[in-house]
Structure formats: C-alpha cells, structure tokens
User: Fold Gamma-butyrobetaine dioxygenase-like from Phallusia mammillata.
Amino acid sequence: MDEKARVESVRISYAKDQIEVLWKDGHGSRFHNKWLRFNCHCNNCYRFIVGQQRINCSLFPDDFPIIDAKVNKDEDQLYVEFNGEVCANHNTVLPLAFLRRNCYCDRCLHKLIDDRKMHFIKPGEFKLQPLDYSTVKGTDGGLFKVLKAVMEVGICYLRGVPTDEEFLEEFAVTIGPLVDSTYGRKFMIHDKGVKDSVTNTREYLTFHTDQAHYESELGVQFFQCLQFDECIEGGESIVADMFQAAEILRQESPDDFRVLTRVPCTFATIDYKRQNPAYYETRKPVIEVDYDDQIVAVHFNTGLDATLRVRENCVMPFYNAHKKLWKIITRPELRFTHRMVPGDMLVFNNRRVAHGREAFVPHGGTRLLQSAYVNVEDFRSKYMVLGRKLGHDVTPTKIGNRSSI
Ligand SMILES: [Zn+2]
Ligand SMILES: [Zn+2]
Assistant:
C-alpha cells in the first residue's frame, strides 16, 4: 500500500461542498464535490480507453451537496454520496492513492510546476560535452542519451556521425517523423547564390528561433555538418538558451518582461516570388506566460518580425523591452560557440534554444550543413516512453510548448 495514501480522517465541510482529508503523514487535502464526482473511478464512469467520455457533466445540477463520505474496510478507497446524483444506483468511488497523487492544495500544485521547471547551465559555464555517435548508434540507451541532453539543457552535441545525406533523416525519424516547413522536409544550408533566405548566405545571423512565422514554431532541430573546409574563416555556430534569457529579463527588468508578455510582435514570411510562394503570418507576444506565471514560450526572430503595429502607447515600451531582451541573449556568458567539423551534429530544442552563425569568408571553401525538424511533443513523448522502458526515473520537464506541464 502507498504509505502516503493512508488516511487519518475524512470529514465533510460545513457547506457540504468539499471533503477534507487528513493524511497520516500530516498532509491535508480538500476536494470539491464536482471534482470528486467527475473523477469517479467506478466501472460506469472510469475512462478505460483514451478519448472515451463516460460522464456527462452537463446533466448535473449546479450544486449537489455531499451527504456521506467514508473510507472502505481495506482503507484504499473513498466512497462518496451526493444529493442530486443523476445516475441511478450510483456510488462514487475514488482510490485514495489517486486522491493523494492528484491533491490540488497550493503545496502540491507548486511541486507539480517546480518538478517540471527547466534547469539552466550557469552563465559562463556553458560547456557542451560532445557525445560520440559510436556510443549512441543503434541502441535505445544511446538514443536516450541524446534525448536526455536535449531535454535537460536544450541541446546535444553529437560528433562522429556519418556525413552522407541519408543519415540525418534515418536518425531523426527514430525520434519522430520529420515535419515539413517553408524550408521543406529537410534542407541544405549553404552559400550557393540561392537568395531565398539569409540562411543561405555568408552573412552573420543573430540568435533566432526558426520558423517564428508559424503559430507554433517547429520543435527539435538538427544541424548535420557535411562539409566545412578548413580554409573558411568564421562561420561558427552560436546558441543561447532563450528561457534563461527571459528569466534574467524577468529578474533584472520586471516591467520590460511584462511588456514582452503582453504586447504582441508579428512574425511573417511573405514572398510571392520564391520558388514556393509563401504567405505565413502570426502575431504573438515574444514571451508567453501561463496560468502559473511560468514562462512557457519564447519567440525571437528579428529577421522575421514584421512591421510593428500595436497601440500607440505600446510602441516605445515594446522597442525598449525588446532591446533589453536582445542584449541579454547576446551576452557572451550565455553563449555556446562551436565551429562544426564534418561529422558533427547539433540536436536542439528550437522552442527553447536560439541559434545563429558568425559571418564567414569562404576563401574558396564550402560550408554545407543539412537540417530538419521533428515535432517537440513527439520528441518529449519519445523521451518519456523510452525512459520508462529503460527503467529511468523520467520527468516531463517544460519544452516550450506553451504549457508548464
Ligand atoms: Zn461512477
Ligand atoms: Zn496537497
């Protein structure tokens, strides 16, 4: 029996709208009548198949007071009776372990959020440990190492991967299907005179999250280095944790932080002349916070931000706040700089980690990277399922999908 689920006492509140449970370890929980009824675990109410709807909440009266509540003989279930029950011969039953696990007191809710917070590498100590592909190749345990790194710090640096073009897709689909985008299903990054995007030039690219013109940016991104000739000057990859930068802004300049959570920025790719004409446009705040005031998304792409059109009194506050965030993102101590060599591959969460590139002078050489994306939720699902299969204690930490759980 779950020790935490042992009950000391159960009582009905004076207003008969809640049950107060005192657990043997001293913790106290309160559960509302509707919450209890709508989470009933009896054979008629419990959802045995994903997607099944067993209880029609709309049929219940606005209020149905609790008239009885008792723990069963085996002390593992709570039985509750209501005045106003709409199902004939119904007894509401809830396992005590379920109740304890889902307690929604402030302390338990705080823990739920806290357990799923991102952990940042301390500024100035942002050293990426390379993971040799030979230690990863072909095993669940190896793949899990990659997923764990992306989950924990947002990025994994693999070295020694094959430099053939097929490898990237073969590897990526072990995490999830490739997701199409305005760049295509997978794409090359090179300076070959194709001027459809600044990516395919030798210009400096400041930190950005890719594809901000979508309602939801693409998730996990791969950069596989196929060729990077030694004669090339510059061209280093740079990455920085946007969530860390946003948290720093919140601490250092709370008013500016609030501005960026409130005033939206428009991101767009509108180009009717390119090979695949495109109209993508969306408006969203640069930083999104949720019900618990947790940062749940950061959108930063100064190459895709469209003309600012917000209410007059928001224009200057937006520019001032955006400048502050930009300056934090580019702080040297928050940055990882890496000159890729053929066989290197960076795997990172594009919802969390911004990337960029130093300008380069080719001196006749070639810099050729291949890239693709996998949905961020497919990635986290793979992490949880694989971790569980391998017997690891895995936690679904935040991934930047607009949710802190
Ligand atoms: Zn039931
Ligand atoms: Zn609690």
